[in-house]
Amino acid sequence: MPTSSITPRPQPSWQRGLAVSAAILVLLAVFALYTQPSFMVLLADQVWSCF
């Protein structure tokens, strides 16, 4: 029984760079939200309302 080995094509470097840049941008946006006191109060209120 022959087995076929399908190997995925490597991703072009510009796509990988774009994906890494997008991930870093999202992380920076999330970290920026944590510096705003009103967001922290909103987040604490939402967590508290779960109990």
What's the quick description here?
The chain is an all-alpha fold and 51 residues long.
- The general outline is elongated
- Rounded to the nearest angstrom, the distance between the terminal CA atoms is 58 Å
Helix content: 55-70%
Biggest β-sheet strands, sense, barrel? none
Number of helices: 2
Which residue ranges are poorly predicted, with pLDDT under 50 across at least 5 consecutive positions? none
Number of strands: 0
Mean pLDDT: 87
The Cα radius of gyration reads 21 Å
Question: What is the succession of H and E elements?
Answer: HH
Structural class: mainly alpha
- Please report which band the strand proportion falls in: under 5%, 5-15%, 15-25%, 25-35%, 35-45% or over 45%: under 5%
What does it look like?
- The structure is a single chain.
- This protein has a domain at about 15-50.
- The protein is built from two helices and no strands.
- The chain has about 50 residues and is mainly alpha-helical.
- The model has no long low-confidence stretch (mean pLDDT about 85).
- The chain starts with 12 loop residues before the first helix and ends with a helix.
Search tags:
51 residues; mainly alpha; 67% helix
Task: Summarize the helices and strands and which ones pair or pack.
Elements lengths: L12 H21 L3 H13 L2
